[in-house]
Specification:
- The protein is an alpha/beta fold.
- 48% of the residues lie in helices and 20% in strands.
- The protein has 12 helices and 12 strands.
- The strands form 3 sheets. Strands 5, 6, 7, 8, 9, 10, 11 and 12 form an 8-stranded mixed beta sheet that branches. Strands 1-2 form a two-stranded antiparallel ribbon.
- Helix 3 packs across helix 4 and helix 7 runs parallel beside helix 8.
- The radius of gyration is 25 Å and the shape is elongated.
- Bound molecules: magnesium ion (2 copies).
């Protein structure tokens, strides 16, 4: 505890501590370097509550650690809000599958030239006890707490069961695309799970497409091995959200993909911007040169559709 000080002083103090600890120390002739993260919580003396002070500092420490090694962070009420929200989501996620709170919505994929529906993307939605929570919010939490594995498996099974029904009911030509998070994809048993679900639902592997994002390419060797396992099973592979990350080209350079899905953000600005059209046209060309199908995501207006028709895309 440091009494009677203001924030700037504490910042200086933290920097001094970080610097001091960075200095190697000699133990039995060996040089040892240690690292430290610091969490700080401040209270007015008149409102002092030691237990709370330590809890808040601990939360700030957690933030400091997740921000990277050797840093410090101050507790703030917003920090508490986001941490409470995360805890609530984590807890709710544990029960969500059992309670049947998830549903899968299917977004059609249309071949622009013919207007034919050639497939559907399975989109997970969560109507939780906390209200509707968007995937952008709950997927990272599910990845962190590990719930993603069970949830992802459930989505894949749902999508394959639905595809099986469509195939029996006169649409043998459609495929289904399923989004897979990096954590889920990097699970060494993922390919085995896919294969088990395919046989259980009696769906041909080539009618199922696994959508991955370029973030899986962070560990190139592992990713390449897993991609190969999936290709052996015969499922299709798509790179999703193409054009949004920093290593997009690296991703397509290193793995053989069947489909390139161009992110909606690139399409949103396409009307009235020659530069955007030029970029989009180039990416479409890239996909085709790689022998992949190209899907442009999120065409919402007739003008966009008419503009894109010239490119023979999905
Ligand atoms: Mg997707
Ligand atoms: Mg997408």
């Amino acid at each position: 505890t440091v009494p009677n000080v203001k924030k700037p002083y504490l910042e200086q103090l933290c920097q001094a501590i970080l610097l001091a600890i960075e200095e190697p120390i000699q133990i039995s002739g060996r040089s040892i370097t240690s690292r430290v993260s610091i969490g700080i919580s401040c209270q007015k003396v008149t409102e002092l509550d030691e237990e709370r002070l330590i809890k808040q500092a601990d939360l700030a420490l957690f933030m400091a650690k997740s921000a990277g090694k050797e840093s410090y962070a101050f507790f703030s009420p917003e920090l508490l809000d986001s941490s409470t929200r995360k805890q609530e989501l984590t807890q709710a996620l544990q029960q969500a599958l059992v309670n049947g709170e998830f549903s899968v919505h299917y977004q059609p994929q249309i071949e622009l030239v013919s207007g034919r529906v050639i497939g559907f993307e399975a989109l997970l939605r969560w109507n939780s006890t906390l209200g509707a929570v968007p995937p952008s919010e709950f997927i990272p939490v599910a990845e962190e707490c590990g719930a993603i594995h069970a949830i992802g498996e459930w989505v894949l099974r749902e999508a394959c069961e639905q595809l099986s029904v469509w195939r029996r009911e006169s649409r043998p030509d459609v495929h289904v695309s399923v989004n897979v998070s990096a954590k889920q994809f990097l699970d060494p048993e993922f390919a085995e799970k896919v294969s088990r679900i395919l046989s259980a639902t009696d769906v041909p592997a080539e009618c199922v497409e696994i959508e991955i994002t370029e973030s899986i390419m962070l560990d190139l060797d592992t990713a390449a091995g897993l991609v190969e396992e999936l290709q052996d099973i015969g499922v299709k592979l798509a790179i999703d959200d193409f054009g949004t990350g920093y290593s997009s080209l690296n991703a397509v350079k290193n793995i053989q993909i069947d489909t390139l899905k161009i992110d909606k953000s690139l399409v949103d600005e396409v009307l009235g911007s020659d530069r955007s059209i030029a970029i989009l046209a180039t990416i479409i060309e890239l996909g085709k040169n790689l022998g992949a199908d190209v899907v442009v995501e999120g065409l919402e207006t007739l003008e966009q559709v008419n503009l894109m028709k010239q490119y023979e895309i999905i």
